Every structure is written in structure tokens, then in C-alpha cells.
Amino acid sequence: MLNNRVLIVGATSDIAQATARQFASRGFHLALAGRNLEDLKHLARDLEIRYDIACMVFPFEAVHYETHAALLEQVETQFGTLDGILTCHGYLGNQQVGQTQVGEALKIIEVNLLSCVSLLNAAAARFEQRKSGFICAISSVAGDRGRQSNYLYGTAKGGLTIYLQGLRNRLAKSGVDVITVKPGFVDTKMTYGMDGMFLVAKPDKMAAGIYRAIVKRKNTVYLPRFWRLIMWIIRHIPEPVFKRMSL
Q1: pTM of the shown model
Q2: What 3 state SS string does the chain have?
């Protein structure tokens, strides 16, 4: 991480903001990308003043695939060579609506999976060429096993996890790290008011785990760590029993 420059995409999310503070407090300069430029500017200014770092903002639309490679070009031209990219954008969506309205189902999959593939393919090409850098993406424990309450979201996150596994395998020989982060329930704007949440973590705790995983060059991390055991149990419930459960 010679340049100490990181791009955070979806930077206005609660987890992204907390992780930005983790990086900034350690002297990293940050490029913040997202849809709400005013919120990004406020965040960037706060980080600059609080931590004495350089911070720039860039517009990002998840499903405007044709702009993704151009975004990376713009960031590295105006901001400098990146050490890594962290993707935090996502769309929880509405499972019940998605079961009857295909537009909602496709939006959940498009934002959470296809947009990440598009953006990270472009990032991977850059890092692979220079044989350095990291790619970190927020997946979810929801992708570990399909459950009736959120299988559309889980489908997208499960696909993202598999994509990151393959990307990790591809880039290993180039010295590029690919980190998959699988959070459990987190207290964020996106999850506010959701039913059935338990063992809810705060964004700051998630951010500390994300930063640690990147620095320690982890492959896959569950955050908080006890979710690894929870999901191991859920994955190993026999299907005849699982079908009778309301999860």
C-alpha cells in the first residue's frame, strides 16, 4: 500500500462511512464514490478536517455499467494510483414484492451482483497489470443458504461470493488480494425496521473488522466472527427439516 489511496464505492452507507474513518485515522487518502454527491462532500470535508487527509468525491451509478471503467480512470487520473477498492453499495429490496414483480427481483440481483461484477472486473484488470492492490466487497451471510425470507437478496450475495472466490483464484498469482466480507445483521439505515433481526452489530464494529481483514490479507471473513458458526449450523440443517422452518 505504497500510495495509501483507497476507493470506497457506495460511500454514504453506514458501513462505508465507518470504514472510511478507519482508513482515514491511519493516514489513508480516500476517493469516495456514490449517488448522493452532497452527502459525499460533507463526509469528505469531515474526514479531511478530522484526520488531515486528502479526500475526493466521484459520482457512481451502480447499474450504469458503461461508466464503471471510466470512473476508475477518472479516479486514478485526478486522485492518484489506487492501492485498493472497497465496494459497499447494495439494495436490500423487498422479497415479497420481488416474488410477484419481476422488476423488483431483477433490481435486487442487478445492484447486488451484476454491478459489482462490472466494476470489479475493471478494477481487477488494473491491479492485475500492476501486480498489486486489493479488492474488498461486502457480501452477506444471506448468500450461504437460500431462505424463504430473503432468497432474492441471498441469491445475489451468494453469486457475489462465488464471483469473488473465482476472482481471488485468478488474481492470486499477481499478488492482488481479494477479500470477501460476510456481515450478519447490522444496525444501518438499510436494515432499519426489519423483522427477525438478532445479534445486531454496530457499523463501527463492522468497519474495524473490515479494515483488519484487508490489512491481514484475509480471504473471507464473517463479521462479527460468531456468524461463521451460526451459518455453519444453518448450512448443515438437513433439507427435510429446513423446509419446515420459517427462516
Answers
A1: 0.93
A2: CCCCEEEEECCCCHHHHHHHHHHHCCCCEEEEEECCHHHHHHHHHHHHHHHCCCEEEEECCCCCHHHHHHHHHHHHHHCCCCCEEEECCCCCCCHHHHCCCHHHHHHHHHHHHHHHHHHHHHHHHHHHHHCCCEEEEECCHHHCCCCCCCHHHHHHHHHHHHHHHHHHHHHHHHCCEEEEEEECCECCCCCCCCCCCCCCECHHHHHHHHHHHHHCCCCEEEECCCHHHHHHHHHCCCHHHHCCCCC
Q: What angle do CA 157, 29, 39 make, to 5 degrees?
A: 65
pLDDT (tens digit per residue) in 184-226: 987 766 554 455 555 667 889 999 999 999 999 999 999 999 9
How is domain 5-242 classified at the CATH fold level?
Answer: Rossmann fold (3.40.50)
Query: Domain residues of the chain, as ranges?
Result: 5-242
- Residue 89 phi, psi (nearest 5): -75, 150
Can you name the residues that pair with 223 across neighbouring β-strands?
183
Cα dist. 196→36, 91, 132, 206, 213 in Å? 30, 18, 41, 20, 28
Asked if 213 contacts 179 with a C-beta cutoff of 8 angstroms, the reply is: yes
54 burial type by CB count under 10 A (0-12 exposed, 13-18 middle, 19+ buried): middle
Query: How far is residue 23 from each of residues 7, 50, 54, 210, 245, measured CA to CA in Å?
Result: 11, 12, 12, 10, 41
